[in-house]
Automatic annotation (TrEMBL):
<comment type="similarity">
    <text>In the N-terminal section; belongs to the enoyl-CoA hydratase/isomerase family.</text>
</comment>
<dbReference type="InterPro" id="IPR006176">
    <property type="entry name" value="3-OHacyl-CoA_DH_NAD-bd"/>
</dbReference>
<dbReference type="GO" id="GO:0070403">
    <property type="term" value="F:NAD+ binding"/>
</dbReference>
<dbReference type="GO" id="GO:0008692">
    <property type="term" value="F:3-hydroxybutyryl-CoA epimerase activity"/>
</dbReference>
<feature type="domain" description="3-hydroxyacyl-CoA dehydrogenase C-terminal">
    <location>
        <begin position="630"/>
        <end position="714"/>
    </location>
</feature>
<keyword id="KW-0511">Multifunctional enzyme</keyword>
<dbReference type="InterPro" id="IPR006180">
    <property type="entry name" value="3-OHacyl-CoA_DH_CS"/>
</dbReference>
<keyword id="KW-0443">Lipid metabolism</keyword>
<keyword id="KW-0413">Isomerase</keyword>
<dbReference type="InterPro" id="IPR008927">
    <property type="entry name" value="6-PGluconate_DH-like_C_sf"/>
</dbReference>
<dbReference type="InterPro" id="IPR001753">
    <property type="entry name" value="Enoyl-CoA_hydra/iso"/>
</dbReference>
<dbReference type="GO" id="GO:0016509">
    <property type="term" value="F:long-chain (3S)-3-hydroxyacyl-CoA dehydrogenase (NAD+) activity"/>
</dbReference>
<comment type="similarity">
    <text>In the central section; belongs to the 3-hydroxyacyl-CoA dehydrogenase family.</text>
</comment>
<dbReference type="Pfam" id="PF00725">
    <property type="entry name" value="3HCDH"/>
</dbReference>
<protein>
    <recommendedName>
        <fullName>enoyl-CoA hydratase</fullName>
        <ecNumber>4.2.1.17</ecNumber>
    </recommendedName>
</protein>
<feature type="domain" description="3-hydroxyacyl-CoA dehydrogenase C-terminal">
    <location>
        <begin position="500"/>
        <end position="595"/>
    </location>
</feature>
<dbReference type="InterPro" id="IPR036291">
    <property type="entry name" value="NAD(P)-bd_dom_sf"/>
</dbReference>
Amino acid sequence: MIYQGNSIQVDYLDQAAGIVEFRFDAKQGSVNKFDKQTNNEFVEAVAILEKSSNIKGLVVSSAKKVFIAGADIGEFVEYFKKPADELYTWLLQINDAFNRFERLPFPKVAAVNGAALGGGCEMTLVCEYRVAGVSSQIGLPETKLGIFPGFGGSVRTPRLIGIDNALEAIATGKAYKPADALKIGLVDAVVADESVMDSAVDLLKKCIDGQFDWQARRQEKLEPVKLNQIEQTMAFTTAKAMIFAKANPKQYPAVALAVEAIENHVNLPLDEAIKVEAAAFAKAATTPQAAALVGLFLNDQAVKKLAKDYSKHAFDINEAAVLGAGIMGGGIAYQAASKGLPIMMKDIKNSQLELGMSEASKLLAKEVERGKSTPEKMGRTLSLIRPTLNYGDFATPDIVIEAVVENPAVKEAVLSEVEDLVKDDTILASNTSTISITRLAKSLKRPENFVGMHFFNPVHRMPLVEVIRGEKTSDEAVATTVALAQKMGKTPIVVNDCPGFLVNRVLFPYFGAFDLLIKEGADFVQIDKTMEKFGWPMGPAYLIDVVGLDTGVHGAKVMAEGFADRMKPDYKGSIEHLYEQGRLGQKNGIGFYKYETDKKGKPKKLADDETYALLKAVQTDAQSFDEQAIIDRMMLAFCNETVRCLEDGIVASAAEADMAMIMGVGFPPFRGGPCRYIDQLGVANYVALCDRYAHLGKAYQAPDKLRQMCDAGETFY
Ligand code: NAD
């Protein structure tokens, strides 16, 4: 053994031939990553290799299913709190080891047998060649975390695969399939998974024999890119136009910093270029966006871990049923079937069943079109959905999800009817958007088996499912519903019961803030533009058009009943007023905006001057608002209600609340969620802002929890 660490082992594969294996095999944890320990061991192992005299070539390998997942993102939180100059020094130290590894006096081949992402991909780049298994992935996803490759990745990729390909790989952060990586030159060969090691050794031997000019391959990376100034300008101009059409540099500054750094270092020798990369990386890592996106990644992991823990106590689910074949019921049936779960779909109208089935086949046909499925698979999936108009077979399902109209009387009747037909331990779940689960449970004989399972529209696309625990809901019912949501490919978050649960409870005060702005004279288009610029995928007027003004008005009534002190306005708002004029939003082609169907059959939003005339009826003032005032008022209403949900124990942690808002309503991910937003503004500043707008009503007033946090100098994270 040449080197034995806890994460890295170096040993001869063939001592006579001088071939060494540099193996990543973390003793702790299921994946290899560049954590502190691995970084230290890497430095030590390189120093030993530098002193070894009889090595002729080296293969970098992994003993895990994943090659190397990247840096340890958990460690980023502490690192990124350091001042930029300390980060810069730290990066140069790690890069020194990578550079020295690259310059070892023998050829090196990476045997990529799984995901080689971020630092894992950068590890392969310090080898001369890369051989990838067919099911491996390779990429540089760092910009998704608000940073960019910092172990030489931004320096080596343009030299190896060209400026355009490197910029695309870094800006999109995508994980390349091996065939695509081969096309752009990010890997040199793709082989069967079981042959990766043999092929890498074979290639290495050819390097040792002089059949491959590995030294020239290395030299390419050490020297500036081989493009003249005009070619470079063209490459950067085209790539920048494409990149910045997608990523707003103000929202995602890491992409802009990466592009700028690459532009500045492509003409420098490698060592100098690394310094440019390190300085720009340190800048990116200390932005609030990096803190938010790294936090988001960690929150996502925490939420998934919670779901996994819940699922341990779940009952088996082999068959499900859904009541209602409407927008949601149809979507739920499709989603269950597409994950292989048989599901009965019951409605009272045959036309609805037909609609539900045709929507499911449309979605499946699209997958076949895109090459993601086959006609045979599509047929098998469709056959898992069993449409029915009667309750004949309801003795078999393990869970029944109710998705009939949002009317408590109808829901109560349907739920108690079905309770008499199912097994004693069948879980009954309601997909209600707003009605309290504890209230609906009152009509049931076995309220412990009843739970909320709130999907979002469109079901196949929206990742979140709120699992709502009513007063009497059993732990097993929660666990089983969590497990089902996971089985359906969703991310469940468990919340306690109240009108609107977590996501809609927070969304209604936000719509309330919108209504109040309109009442006081604001322009709905300006509000939409401002909030979209702030980072929301759609502004509130557009959002309510998509949700449906009827659904909004109906939900608002339930919320007003539950939280009269802040969700029951003493005036008629714009949403209700437009609804009364017959405007339902996208579903009938007119809401705040007009909608036309485009060539692809998608609704296209158009301005409608008549809306302004109609809104005059609910406007009692003619104030104008600047962008900041709009943002502050909208965000205070949203964030305050999130904090109240934490205060009331509706949601257990800031991490879950933030994830729910990002996945459920599209809260700007680069802001990390409402709790992170408050933290980044500063709790004291945020409370002061609440005080400034306190005269507008309870929705804007700082919750007690925030005042206490402010006094104690606490933050959410
Ligand atoms: P929808 O009107 O599209 O569908 C309701 C379906 O229920 C109709 O097909 C109707 O025929 C059927 N139905 C009525 N009474 C029935 C009965 N006794 N037995 C069986 N079927 C019956 O409504 P939707 O938008 O799918 O909403 C369904 C539920 O999901 C509601 O509680 C709603 O609040 C909730 N939800 C809706 C959305 C959304 O955006 N649409 C999002 C989340 C949750």
